[in-house]
Amino acid sequence: MAYSHINVTNSSNSSSPFCRFNEDFKFILLPVSYALVFVIGLALNATALFVMVFRTKRWKPSTIYMFNLTMCDTLYIFTLPFLIFYYADENDWPFSEPVCKLIRFLFYANLYGSILFLCCISLHRFLGICHPVRSLSWVSARRARLVSVAVWACVLFCQAPILYFARTRDVKTERICYDTTSSELFNDFLVYSSVVSVLMFALPFMVVMVCYGLMVRKLLEPGWGSNKRGEGDGEGGGLKAQRSKQKSVKMIIIVLAAFMLCFLPFHLTRSLYYSFRYLRQVDPSQISCSLLEAASVAYKVTRPLASANSCVDPILYFLAGRDARSTLTKKSKSSSQNPTMRHCLTTKL
After folding, report:
1. What does the pLDDT look like over 120-129, one tens digit per residue?
2. InterPro entries, from UniProt (predicted)?
3. pTM, whole model, 2 decimals?
């Protein structure tokens, strides 16, 4: 039976006993869940990349954001085999410390890169729904590229300290790759992690919630779509407005699902676990080992949920975007109505 010493919280207080956690569950939960995310996420993201690169002729701003989001997920997915092997071997890291640093860095870069790009997609859709005319001069593919570069720069800069905090340590015959940091650096890591959580999760989450609240109110207006860039003129315009409304509703549901199921539980349980560890370090009488273990279990259970956002993000493209799919559908309908056009489209494709 495998146990984990919570030495990061007790090493600075010689009068407090070590907490020992039974972590057998994670040696099954994490490898299995990461393997599922790897298989499903790789298939979905590879398909999304193929459609965007080879089947999308005109890249809209939303396509640019989705491409960067998919690249972010794909980079993380390729790190999962390392973690699968590590946890299946019960916390025995067979690779070097630089590889440990890189794996932990890519996890957090994916996590916060996904959050920021989802925020960009939400803001883009918000402008199109609530400010359709003025957004014509605000939104462009060029600006979307600049925003994407800024997001990547922000993510790399804010997550660079992970390369310092992530460490390995030899314990008996095993080598541990910390998912946080070593005991002597935990206090500094707690401050860093708290600041990053506020700036790169709490604030974007608030922005997304405000945008979606305003979008829902706008979509529920009886006359929505009648003045939306002239799309309400005629039966065709009404149908187009209705499709745009359905597309927006799907996007709202999927993004909120990503935040509520993947990001929010992870950040809540992680913050709770880190806080309990710090409080026990300051005064062991405040937090019992059983309470600390419960927080640790909750945190480890939500880690696969955070990874699962790599599977949810491509669904956003296929269900809420569907630019390539719509184009292929239109071509299919046109070719069925016009034999000459069918021959031209077949040749073109």
Report:
1. 999 998 988 8
2. GPCR_Rhodpsn (IPR000276), GPCR_Rhodpsn_7TM (IPR017452)
3. 0.84
